[in-house]
Amino acid sequence: MGEKDTRDVLLIEDDSGDAGLVKIAIRRSHHLCRLHHVMDGQEAMAFLRRQVGHADAPRPDLILLDLNLPGRNGHEVLEEIKADSLLRMIPVVILSTSGAERDIKTAYMLGANSYVSKPMDVEAFTAAIHSIQDFWFGIAQLPK
């Protein structure tokens, strides 16, 4: 696999424990991925728009978005991403501890590409991340 086969994943997650689990899962995956981690919606939008501090940020192939974020919550960040004609084609997977029906419905109404409840077990969490990667980088066709 060449450099262009490496996928860029943007993780928007304020919980350092969950972020660490995602990092470990991606490192152990058979997909070549560069993980970029931001802690809140404001930094996420700066990364996606290549603004202050993120001028060289790559365009992610996939966004993993937590709902419970400081400042702008995940639904607001999702709405902003999907309202932006330059960003809306990037798949956004909600990765949340919430299994509440209203959170799931709202995420899909705002354009989420899928919604995954974070498993509490480390092995199940890793398996969920690998399944997300297998689908988006192995089965689905993404725009270039």
From TrEMBL:
SUPFAM superfamilies named in the record: CheY-like
Domain Response regulatory: 8-133
InterPro entries, per database record: CheY-like_superfamily, Sig_transdc_resp-reg_receiver, TCS_response_regulator
Alphabetical list of SMART domains matching this protein: REC
Pfam families according to UniProt: Response_reg
Protein name: Response regulator
Gene3D superfamilies the record matches: 3.40.50.2300
Transmembrane segments: none
Keyword Phosphoprotein in record: yes
GO BP field: phosphorelay signal transduction system
Keywords from the UniProt entry: Phosphoprotein
Residues found modified as 4-aspartylphosphate: 66
